[in-house]
């Protein structure tokens, strides 16, 4: 089996372009929906606290985080971190983000299997991320001498690719939980719900593109490895 690196390289560049476009579209959508005030008048912080309370979660704090689009749930210290604008904002975008991050807190509280799997991979990948780029570079440079370094690098990179694909169901499930709750709770109107859903869809697409890009990069290194083996 032999992969041609040229088509893979083209795919990598195409995915880089798509990634840039989706990031631009995501920022554009959030800026647009951030200007639409919620009829409920709730801030992102209030929405997050209400969603946690409705799910019986009392050991998770909602805190403000610096930056833009830096929102995340930290299972280590059980905090829902909302960017400064989302934390105080009363908009469709804030409702989408706040409820989505609380969706991760609900996953954690209910022992959602894919989140547990992803969380279990984090400590291992933290170490891998430090050394993997250097191992891959060394593997390519030493390919004529030994195929082992590149083989090790590919094995490590495959873990990061797996992680990016495991992330997909986690993110989609958190959005599903968020949209169902804000609709059922009456946090948003029909129009605001459509905006929140659209914003979360574009956010999810960033993870989809990242996963495909990671797979394309993995295939690129595999093509180099297979080409080196064929020349031996």
TrEMBL record:
Keywords: Membrane, Transmembrane, Transmembrane helix. Signal peptide: none annotated. It comes from the Bacteria. The chain crosses the membrane at residues 7-26, 120-143, 150-170, 199-222. PANTHER family: MEMBRANE PROTEASE YUGP-RELATED. This is Zinc metallopeptidase. It comes from Hymenobacter algoricola.
